User: What shape does this take?
Amino acid sequence: MKIKQALWAIAASGLIACNSNTPQTAESKTLAEGIWQGTINQNDSTELKFNFKVSKLSDSSYSFNISNAGEITEAKMLQIAPDSFRVEMPAFANYLLVKSEGNALKGYYVNPDADDYRLPFSAKAGVEERYENTQHLYPIPGYWKMVFNPGTEDEKAALAHFDWEIDKGVYASIMTATGDYRFLEGSGAAGKLRFSTFDGAFLYYFEADLHDTMQGRFYSGRSGYSTWIAYRDSSFSLPNPDSLTYIKEGYEGFDFAFPNLEGDTLGLDDSRFEDKAVIIQISGSWCPNCYDESRYLSEVYGQYKDQGLEIVCLSFERARDYATAQKRLAKFQKDLEIPYPVLLAGATRDDKAADKLPMLNKVMSYPTAIYLDKKHQVRKIHTGFAGPGTPVWEDFVSENDAFLQKLLNE
Assistant: This one.
């Protein structure tokens, strides 16, 4: 065991007696039910805040439902000592280790797949606001062009959309050429704007000074940082996601053959795909937009399976080793109830999708969806995924549904 890991194990033993079979006793703490405000310290000066609701369940555990702009992430609190809990997140391996102190919680947010990744966590019962109460805001609703790291080699454009409701706060969506930042919620006060999301695995916090433009900072995880500006630009749009990825010259089409979680290889020549239209999902259990796309494709599969549609996921994991990758992917598939085959195409960061799928010009985004007709000719490749937290979601679903019906009726 590495020295840092050993020190963390010692520290954790002082915070929590990690025995999942610890029986409840007369000294077991009872948590306050209802709304809480949680805080994760991304660094010494940045506090990402979010709200969650605690409810006691019939098995004496607690639900821990995280709210982000209307989306609810249903986690579960397992009591592992009289005053201590482990919060298990759906789909992802990340978790919270917390200790009850009256109407407060203290502990750590842990990412087990990164070295010494634990961030201080605290929470207060009964606090419904996310950040400061909303006061006067500049007229921000609508679309804005957003530029990350302006004036640098890392400059990247995005399309931001804001809604503002009195007494509720600010809801934001930020879309790039490769996806979106999911459900963002916050508030504005005294010329400042703060909004964030925490869905159990991803820590995104934005802040800005409000003028005619927005000038801000973005914090991701424990170390990600970017500056950004945003301004009105009615002519700005993102590139067409169906035009970014394509089959290279010299290749006749798309093909694959990778093992499932039981170790059995499945390829496009398998009988289950014969004379079927196929959606091939390039994905990863660590990927926030893959989470949204997997839920969407699971619904699509249920709707169109009997009409001749098959879906298969090619997952590229970022685990330490193959066994851990299998475990992470199995949890992802189980928790999301993915009904179509999930294949482990790559286990670690060393397994590059571009090497495993040489027929593509590039794999620039997770997820990427490849649509094949019944003769297995590539008909469309959709790069990235703008999910249900974006204003383009309903149009995408409607257009994709029309495309699938045409594909299945040919």
The CA atoms of residues 34 and 53 lie 5 Å apart. The longest helix spans residues 288-304.
